[in-house]
Design goal:
Layout: E1 18-24, H1 31-40, E2 48-54, H2 61-75, E3 78-83, H3 99-120, E4 126-130, E5 134-136, H4 141-147, E6 152-158, E7 171-172, E8 177-178, E9 188-190, E10 197-201, H5 202-206, H6 236-246, E11 251-261
Parallel strand pairs: 1-2, 1-4, 2-3, 6-11
Antiparallel strand pairs: 4-10, 5-11, 6-10, 7-8, 9-11
Helix pairs in contact: 1-2
Length: 264
């Protein structure tokens, strides 16, 4: 017998109100495509709000957002643009995935996500976290995520169809299984989530679900082994996944619903 998940949308309106949230940094080359994808998203303008927070960019991202503001406003019932700098710069010649900077980088990203959430969320029923550097996703992706009825769910982010998982922050079994390892199922339980595209029931955020800007869940048996550089616990999106389960909310992933991310 199928288990009916909490938060199923059948009792809700056919198009619940959704807040799309995107933190951005040095994202000027991606913003036109970001707007193009939002324009073709199969969700009515009257039920869609958009919020972006820019910080610490050196490539004119904030100016580009002002240029695109009319188009973004035309796509949503409400648009919120914020700027908050954290003074975090990746040293020259250091790649953003370098292990030694990951704890600080993820702390800043978590803080930016939380600032954006707290300053943007009003009456919306759902929050869709969306990376600015996605290059393609199905126009009906939001409807397909909603149709699962899950309170926290994300698609499978790859850089090419059928390829390995790009967003490796979504995992289970202590990080040993990602969505590319679980393609035999259409929906799988996850212990941690990624943030490239993540749908969250807004009331979970209102109840206290955040992106921890600190190592969270040291006593939770689902976290990964202690990291050699920063110790034990999960941060940012992985921390949100562990926190959600501490709040009795289950995270899910859809291995066969793919979205495409830019190579980086």
């Amino acid at each position: 017998m199928a288990v009916r998940p909490k938060g199923a949308t059948s009792a809700r309106s056919a198009c619940p109100s959704v807040l799309v949230l995107t933190p951005v940094k040095d994202a000027a080359p991606h913003l036109d495509r970001y707007l193009d994808l939002l324009d073709r998203l199969d969700w009515p303008k009257s039920r869609l709000s958009i919020g972006l927070l820019e910080g610490d960019s050196v490539d004119g991202t904030w100016d580009k957002l002002q240029e695109l503001k009319p188009g973004l406003s035309a796509r949503a019932r409400r648009l919120s643009l914020f700027k908050r700098d954290y003074g975090f710069k990746i040293p020259a010649g250091v790649h953003r995935w370098t292990p030694q900077i990951q704890l600080l980088r993820r702390q800043i990203l978590a803080r930016a996500r939380n600032q954006l959430l707290f300053r943007s969320l009003r009456d919306e029923e759902w929050v869709l976290w969306l990376d600015v550097d996605l290059v393609d996703y199905p126009p009906d992706v939001l409807r397909r995520l909603m149709a699962t009825g899950f309170e926290i769910v994300h698609p499978h982010c790859v850089t090419r169809p059928g390829g390995p998982t790009f967003d490796q922050n979504g995992w289970r079994e202590h990080g040993s299984k990602m969505l590319c390892d679980l393609r035999e199922s259409d929906a799988v339980r996850l212990d941690a989530v990624g943030g490239t595209m993540l749908l969250v029931k807004a009331d979970l955020h209102r109840d206290g679900l955040i992106f921890p800007p600190f190592l969270y869940g040291r006593s939770n048996p689902r976290i990964r082994p202690q990291h050699p550089l920063w110790g034990q616990g999960e941060i940012e999106t992985e921390g949100l996944g562990i926190m959600a389960q501490d709040m009795n909310a289950q995270c899910w992933g859809l291995p066969n619903l793919e979205i495409l991310h830019a190579n980086s």
